[in-house]
UniProtKB/TrEMBL annotation:
Tree of life domain: Bacteria
GO molecular function: methyltransferase activity
Name this polypeptide is given: SAM-dependent methyltransferase
TM spans (from-to): none
Database matches in InterPro entries: Methyltransf_25, SAM-dependent_MTases_sf
Length: 201
């Protein structure tokens, strides 16, 4: 199903890229995960209502509303760009108005990824190659510190994961590969069109 169909279904506007430039050289331009990709991911990867998913570089919030709609899980969006943050908040207003859910189930924060204080309930973390390896390392360090304070089942999902990301996580952290999910029709043309799921053992 195309982007227009899903945006209409969720009563949000998440298509299109980012206007202007990122406020930091460490942050990449916003591009939403294609709905086609999300359908492929969640065909093979399930979430529970008790999960709390953090999307680093959430942009306009597409992943947040998709997950909340399909699984009822709590979601948290982290976005450094002020304009994108406001678009995500506006999308939340539209989504909640139509769905009747509570605002507290969908949090959106305007801050740098490394400045977000990991909640003890956060247990699923999503990255669509949103920033430099330096920021990624810092953010993973925060996640691991949170685990040390509150041990729990933690998983990381990388979409379009850069070689730097995958090399670092596999050689410098206790995370281990759990699953690889390719996007049919896209992976054959570009091997980055896949999701890598890592579990903290």
């Amino acid at each position: 199903m195309d982007d227009k169909y899903y945006d209409a279904l969720l009563h949000v506007k998440t298509s299109g890229g980012q206007k202007g430039f990122s406020p930091s050289v460490h942050y990449h331009r916003y591009e939403p995960t294609p709905y086609e990709g999300l359908d492929a991911l969640f065909l093979h990867y399930q979430l529970k209502e008790t999960d709390r998913v953090v999307d680093f570089g959430c942009g306009k919030g597409r992943l947040l509303f998709y997950i909340h709609h399909h699984f009822g899980a709590s979601v948290v969006g982290i976005e450094i760009d002020k304009s994108l943050y406001h678009e995500a908040v506006e999308n939340r207003v539209r989504y909640l108005k139509k769905s009747g859910y509570q605002k507290g189930e969908i949090e959106i924060h305007q801050c740098a990824a490394q400045d977000y204080e990991i909640n003890s309930l956060d247990n699923r973390f999503y990255f669509f190659n949103p920033f430099s390896i330096q920021v990624f390392k810092h953010t993973l360090s925060n996640i691991l510190h949170s685990y040390e304070q509150n041990p729990r089942n933690i998983e990381i999902i990388l979409y379009y994961g850069s070689t730097e990301y995958t090399y670092f996580i596999e050689t410098n952290t206790p995370f281990q590969m759990k699953k690889e999910i390719i996007i049919p029709g896209l992976f054959e043309k570009n091997t980055y069109e896949r999701f890598l799921v890592y579990q903290l053992l």
